[in-house]
Inverse folding.
């Protein structure tokens, strides 16, 4: 991929860091680009959280929450995450769902939310800001006016879909599909106690 480096401030406070031009083609023959943005909300280590955006030709969006583990609290977080860890997110256009040539959502705009909060997208304070990160991303796009939104996630990202779908519905279009992939769920007192360590909704 060809990389263009930017440092462009946007109205919502996010900054476009890089633009990646891909060789693959969309169904309409255009070559997709991927833009990487930095947010005000932070990763575990205090670095700005990031997401990737690949614009499509249809009024359809996919918001995908990346997975990757869980920390019960910061003291016992063996692998705190940084925005420097999100480069692997560039491969998301290679998967079948997001494939720019043959996937079922090939013409959709794709938002890949990089996971660096280790809280299954549920935290909103201190080192665990997953819900804040997601709120900033949602507020950056006109989802309410879309023809379709697919709100999806895998593993911890799937948990994020479960945690956040209901509260975000007022900002989503009437036609929204939730896709939860491999989200392990434990309905136990231990899991609920761990969750209370960082999930603090106002």
């Amino acid at each position: 991929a060809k990389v263009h480096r930017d440092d462009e401030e946007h109205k919502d406070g996010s900054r476009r860091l890089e633009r990646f031009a891909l060789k693959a083609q969309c169904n309409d023959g255009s070559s997709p680009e991927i833009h990487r943005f930095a947010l005000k909300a932070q990763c575990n280590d205090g670095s700005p959280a990031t997401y990737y955006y690949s614009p499509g030709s249809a009024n359809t969006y996919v918001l995908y929450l990346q997975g990757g583990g869980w920390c019960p609290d910061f003291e016992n977080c063996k692998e705190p995450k940084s925005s420097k860890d999100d480069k692997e997110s560039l491969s998301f256009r290679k998967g079948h769902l997001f494939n720019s040539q043959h996937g079922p959502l090939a013409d959709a705009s794709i938002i890949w939310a990089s996971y660096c909060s280790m809280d299954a997208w549920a935290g909103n304070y201190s080192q665990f800001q997953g819900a804040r990160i997601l709120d900033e991303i949602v507020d950056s796009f006109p989802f309410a006016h879309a023809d379709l939104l697919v709100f999806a996630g895998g593993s911890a990202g799937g948990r994020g879909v479960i945690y956040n779908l209901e509260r975000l519905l007022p900002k989503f279009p009437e036609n929204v599909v939730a896709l939860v992939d491999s989200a392990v769920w434990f309905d136990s007192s231990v899991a609920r106690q761990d969750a209370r360590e960082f999930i603090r909704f106002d």
About this structure: Strands lie at 2-9, 15-21, 33-42, 48-54, 60-65, 109-113, 148-154, 176-181. The chain is about 15% helix and 30% strand.
